Amino acid sequence: MSPESKPLTKLNNSQSGIRNENGPASYLAEECEGWQALLRAQPKLMQIFLKTEALQLAETLMQPSFQVHFNLQPEVILRAKDAQATPVPAEQRDQMVGGLVDRLMRSNLNLALRQRLDELESASNEPTAIAAGLLRYSLAIALVHDLLPTGRSVRYQAVDGEEIPTLPNMDQELIESALTAASDAIAEESGETESGAVI
Description:
The protein contains 7 helices and 6 strands. The protein is mainly alpha-helical. The chain has helices at 13-16, 24-41, 44-62, 90-93, 100-104, 109-121, 126-147; strands at 67-71, 75-76, 86-87, 94-98, 156-157, 167-168. The longest helix has 22 residues, at 126-147. The strands form 3 sheets. Strands 1-4 form a two-stranded antiparallel sheet. Strands 2-3 form a two-stranded antiparallel ribbon. It has a two-stranded antiparallel ribbon with strand order 5-6. The radius of gyration is 22 Å and the shape is globular.
């Protein structure tokens, strides 16, 4: 899919905190906003379909596996402003990544999935490309919001001369981790009861 046909929206740099509107952080934020708007434009049933597929893919990627099966949505709205959904070709919807050969060669399933999604997003058929992009975006959302443990917010700062903030801001008030807090069952010291049982 050509960059000019990708569903992008202009992001207000003052809201996003991005300094240079021509830099990589601006482009990434703009692309993310575009996929987010396009996902919101999909019918509710297709949003549920994408979330379900993404969660299943994410769960598969978290387990030791050499094969993954997924489906692209049956129809897709190509632009956030469109009201009419376009069908995704049936022969493109059912996808399989990995297999016996990959298992024998101990191939990386994550890399194979990324390559397959890249191929689908580069397809000449626009509904297939958009459907693959929406699945990739939904997978990223599922991995970050549904599978990663919830923790405290961390703000990052950019290193001198870099556009994208990558270093945690050490000026933040350091909050003790809930996992190692004294009130946590994991951190409590074990002791013995009067009967000699270990608690």
